[in-house]
Design goal:
It comes from Trifolium pratense (Red clover). This is DUF674 family protein. InterPro entries: DUF674 (IPR007750). Pfam families: DUF674. The protein contains five helices and four strands, in the order αββαββααα. By secondary structure, the chain is mainly α. The chain folds into two domains: about 5-75, no CATH class; about 85-155, no CATH class. The strands form two sheets. Strands 1-2 form a two-stranded antiparallel sheet. A hairpin with a 5-residue loop joins strand 3 and strand 4 (about 95-100).
Length: about 160
């Protein structure tokens, strides 16, 4: 083959095919584990599992493969068991969330100036889209968010 007949585009296509083959081989070597990618410019700390996702900062494909450190957790395990074990949280009326151990009962009563324990009410609520929107609106207008959204009818 003469140099005149040499097609640079053809060579570039072959290089791209080789790179894609290497990448798909690397992906298959992962043994079914999720691969993670970030922006090649490292302009954000965003991570994706899809290397065609565009970076929110520079809009380049986030195709820079990164290594996961630690153990992978089986999705079925996290769905059934979750990550947090044997910890009870309290959600305050102003949406502050704290572990129950961090706040003794007396402290909570004093914080909200509660004199009569009979006025307290424990509730289990269903949180859907409508309730989420109401919580968002109430959080911008009041410090008594839970009261205004879930007990509003009673007051």
């Amino acid at each position: 083959m003469k140099y005149d007949d040499y097609d640079e585009d053809e060579d570039e296509d072959e290089d791209e095919e080789d790179e894609e083959a290497e990448e798909s081989e690397e992906d298959s070597l992962a043994g079914g584990e999720t691969m993670f990618y970030m922006c090649p410019n490292e302009c954000s700390y965003n991570v994706t599992c899809d290397k065609t996702t565009r970076c929110s900062s520079c809009k380049r494909a986030m195709n820079n493969k990164i290594n996961h450190v630690g153990n992978y957790v089986d999705k079925e395990y996290t769905i059934k068991n979750g990550f947090v074990k044997d910890v009870t949280f309290i959600v305050m009326d102003d949406l502050v969330i704290q572990p129950m151990q961090a706040l003794p009962g007396i402290t909570i009563l004093n914080k909200f100036n509660i004199k009569d324990i009979g006025t307290l009410k424990e509730m289990v609520v269903e949180l859907g889209v409508d309730e989420g929107i109401k919580l968002l609106k109430a959080s911008l207008q009041s410090k008594m968010v839970l009261t205004s959204v879930f007990l509003k009818k009673e007051y």
